Amino acid sequence: MKRVLVLAYYFPPFGLSGVQRILKFVKYLPEYGWLPTVLTTEPHAYLAFDDSLLSDIEGRPVEVWRTGASGAFAVVKERTTVKLKAERVRKTLNRISQFVFVPDNKIHWKKAVLALLDSKDMSRFDAVLTTAPPFTSHRIGLEIKQRYGLPLIADFRDSWVDNPWHFYWTPLHRYLHERYERSVMLGADALIATNPHTRAAWVRRYGDVVPPGKMHVIEQGYDHEDFVGAAPVVSASAYSANPDVVHFVYTGIFYEERHPVPLYHVLHEIKRRLPDLYRRLKFTFVGYVQDEYRAIAQKLGVDDCFEYTGYVEHAESVAWLRRADVLWMIMGEGGPRYQSVSPGKTFEYIGSRKPIFAMTGECYTKEVVERFSHTFTAAPSDVEGCIRILAHLADLKKRNALPHATPEEVEPYSRSVLTGTLASILNAQQRA
Smaller CB count within 10 Å for the chain: N or C? Predict the structure, then answer.
């Protein structure tokens, strides 16, 4: 068995979407001949915790090393749940952080990581795998490669310089990000993107100095084991048993352009023009929903369409997916800037095999969901298109004819299958 050091700032018991990809890689790597040691942080103040996720690696040959933390939340060392701020406040604080810290507010984590590694036997490792954001992880990975001679595989859950939600205050800020990204592109032995648009951007920018064969794509995915034996959700089951009601479920949080306001306006229009259809539509939002959005639903008179669970552990979130009639998501109006965005939620929806209604403009997410015949898409600004889809879904539910994907269609996005691709990349780069 070969050994890989996995550098992941976000890892259970931290919750939310940022931990899923690396957790599932770690879970399945031993099946492909690689023993992972995860280097992460001690739990500290954060938006959400999910201890149940650690069950994915219980009884598996996975080590976890923990260091002190870095960043704004780490000011509070104790494990404390921090309330999600109003979006305008969150965005303002995020922009301030981007002004002060380059590449991100985890830059001081490097000292803790290297101090811990100095006390370990690094000769037993055959490679180092870093995942970002935070992009500081990739910069630490370069230092680990230089110190210990380990090949570096850098996994980008989000794009770096092209990230549509990264704000460059000055030309100097952008220059530094471009410089640091370039150093990772040149220094890493393999680069992994979550979608082909990110890889294409790398080729355009670095193809003259970085061999394209070094750039890989491993898409986001779903874990088939998550959909086995999920606990029932009584209220969702009651909706699904009623042929006159279409039960939509959304899981996750809202931020930037990905928020429910366009859906509220669509429902407001349906309530005004098609009251019978309006009474047949019910939505469950599973996860944090800021008060400002709930207030807009109330102002538009559509709040009776919604129920809110608050944050739940991942297993319960999956249970909601399984009990839904249709899964709803929103990606904004899209455009070239958003081609690099690849939410893990999309692929978990796909793994459920349930019908998907995506309010999205032109972007990679639209490309993904339109690979399947059981999905429906319309731009958030296309009110009439959204109304037609909702009416069609209500009719399908009435006729017990809602479409579902087959197991064969979704199998390529299984986390276990995708981890096999990662193992092949590791095999090609392992230390001689």
Answer: C
Q: Is 209 exposed, middle or buried (CB count within 10 Å of its CB: 0-12, 13-18, 19+)?
A: exposed
pTM: 0.92
pLDDT at 240 exceeding the cut of 70: no
Q: 224-411: same fold as 2-221+415-429?
A: yes
- Topology, domain 224-411: Rossmann fold (3.40.50)
With CA atoms as reference, report the closest residue to 264 among 302, 304, 306. Answer: 302
Residue 335 contacts residue 362 (beta carbons within 8 Å)? yes
Whole-angstrom distance, CA of residue 395 vs CA of residue 406: 22
pLDDT for position 327: 97
pLDDT tens-digit series, residues 65-75: 999 876 665 66
Q: How many CB atoms lie within 10 A of CB 111?
A: 13
> Which structure tokens are listed for 261?
């306001």
Q: For the segment 125-137, what is each residue's pLDDT rounded down to a tens digit?
A: 999 999 999 999 9
Other beta carbons within 10 Å of 366: 19
Domain spans of the chain, in order of start: 2-221+415-429, 224-411
pLDDT digits (tens, 9 = 90+) for 78-89: 777 777 777 788
Distance CA 289, CA 258 (A): 12
Architecture of domain 2-221+415-429: 3-Layer(aba) Sandwich (3.40)
270-280: b or e for each residue (b if 16 or more CB lie within 10 Å)? Answer: bbeebeebbeb
Query: What span, in angstroms and rounded, lies between the C-alpha atoms of 15 and 319?
Result: 16
Q: CA nearest 49: which of 15, 23, 17, 26?
A: 15
Q: Which residues contact 17 (CB under 8 A, 6 or more apart)?
A: 252, 343, 344, 345
